[in-house]
Amino acid sequence: MAKYLERDAVIALEDLPNIGKAGAADLRCIDILQPGQLVGQSPLQMYEKLCSTTGARHDPCVIDVFISAVRYMEGAEPLPWWSYTAERKRLLKSG
């Protein structure tokens, strides 16, 4: 597992686990400009807003990345984004 900054040192979106330039651009596209804004967000609603805003259907794995970022900012350990695939599949089935 890659080494990540301590949560309180995370200032930029790119400081988050699993968020690179493209992921940060996706978050900015849906008006999330700072990591702290992720707390309390619904990753599924974030994904729907991204698709609506861009007018394109994004890969569902983006939901996994969003889940990982939200969970991390809410106190979870940093995990690879694919650790959240099963959760995404459950969310999509129930939603």
TrEMBL record:
Recorded hits in InterPro entries, A to Z, give:
Cdd1
Q: Which organism is it from?
A: Collimonas pratensis
Q: Which Gene3D superfamilies match?
A: 5' to 3' exonuclease, C-terminal subdomain
Question: Taxonomically, what lineage is the organism?
Answer: Bacteria, Pseudomonadati, Pseudomonadota, Betaproteobacteria, Burkholderiales
Protein name per the record: Pathogenicity locus family protein
